[in-house]
Specification:
heterodimer, A: alpha+beta, 3-stranded antiparallel sheet, two-stranded antiparallel sheet, 4 helices, 6 strands, 21% helix, 37% strand, B: mainly alpha, globular
Chain lengths: 145, 106
């Protein structure tokens, strides 16, 4: 059955092994235009059909900081999982220990495709500058419910 | 009522080119409510685009400084943005979905 609305909301409730109730809400939006006409910023919603995006509470940004740590010059042909440039970059990024090693590892693994996608429109020999931004969310915060 | 949300320190890395910042700014501008009076984004300084400056170290440092100011200002003002803008900023910063799960569980 094809929904009449252009947006669907799906809510899933999960009970963890520690009896913690998690509520996960996902939104799906019908994609009928080309990416540059997308009503949302999400780059992943680049194909026709239905695409999901997260709807974030504004609180998530209140105690988030983002700072550009450095800029790197990258040659597109040098990108690849085994290339020295990328390996060096990956080693230099995680300089401080984090409590969330698993999360860190997952994100680190995503760096190569991230960079590759960023340069997708470039010629093989072309160089570009990418800004490396360190984002941090605070340990604890209060907000008015 | 004040609700306290606790989660571990989370830090991650995202990479963006100058054009990505431009896209974000452009999107946020489109989402501005014209009836709100003061145009908040007009007050946020954004570095202009110049041909060839990207490879000059001194100019590049200035650009980083300006983009940092832009990021700081956007996050400071985030509570005033609409939902689409908040989604855009969270997407730009690639806020891990894990944080969303924790927040919504509280």
């Amino acid at each position: 059955m094809i929904p009449q609305s252009d947006e669907l909301q799906v809510t899933i409730e999960i009970c963890t092994e520690h009896d913690r109730q998690l509520r996960l809400t996902k939104y799906f939006r019908r994609v009928i235009h080309l990416p540059y006409k997308m009503p949302t910023f999400k780059n992943c919603a680049s194909s026709f059909g239905w695409s999901f995006f997260d709807r974030w509470p504004s609180e998530v940004l209140l105690h988030t900081t983002a700072v550009i740590r450095e800029s790197v010059r990258i040659k597109k042909s040098g990108l690849g999982h085994g290339s020295p440039a990328v390996l060096q970059l990956r080693e230099s990024i995680w300089t401080s220990p984090s409590e969330s090693k698993q999360l860190q590892s997952q994100l680190n693994m995503g760096l190569v495709p991230l960079l590759t996608n960023t340069s997708g429109m470039l010629d093989e020999a072309e160089k570009f500058i990418s800004f490396i931004i360190r984002v941090r969310s605070s340990r604890q915060k209060d907000y008015n419910a | 009522m004040t609700k306290q949300v606790s989660f571990r320190d989370a830090a991650w890395i995202v990479t963006h080119r100058y054009s990505d910042f431009e896209s974000l700014k452009s999107f946020l501008e489109q989402q501005q409510d014209p009836l709100r009076g003061v145009d908040m984004l007009q007050q946020i300084r954004f570095p202009g685009k110049s041909v060839g400056l990207a490879y000059r170290q001194s100019k590049l440092l200035k650009r980083i400084e300006s983009l940092n100011t832009f990021l700081y200002s956007v996050l400071e003002s985030s509570s005033s943005f609409n939902q689409c803008s908040i989604d855009a900023i969270a997407s730009f910063l690639m806020v891990p979905a894990l944080l969303l799960y924790i927040i919504t569980a509280e």
